[in-house]
Automatic annotation (TrEMBL):
Stored InterPro entries: CrgA
Topological relation to the membrane, as annotated: Multi-pass membrane protein
GO BP field: cell division
Gene, per the UniProt record: crgA
UniProt keyword Cell cycle, yes or no: yes
Official protein name in the record: Cell division protein CrgA
Annotated organism of origin: Pseudonocardia hydrocarbonoxydans
Transmembrane segments: 34-56, 62-84
Homology family: Belongs to the CrgA family.
Amino acid sequence: MPKSKVRKKAVYTPPAGDKRTTTPVKVTGPTNPIYVAVFLGLMLLGLLWLVVNYLAVDYIPWMAALGPWNFLIGFSLIVIGLLMTMRWR
């Protein structure tokens, strides 16, 4: 059986005129404790909203009027808090 030909690839060399330098990203210190309190508070508030929706929706008329929007409000608060954790150092 004949042997297949081996192809050699040329080594890539970037163009000489392209001298871009990357700027290093500055890493700042730890996050302000107020920021941590806000995202933890939002997550707990969203959880509390959902728990109150399940347990006491019959006793709170304005919450009963919201209907299924209560789920959107509760989960939105939780998701906003979780998104804020991505910026936490």
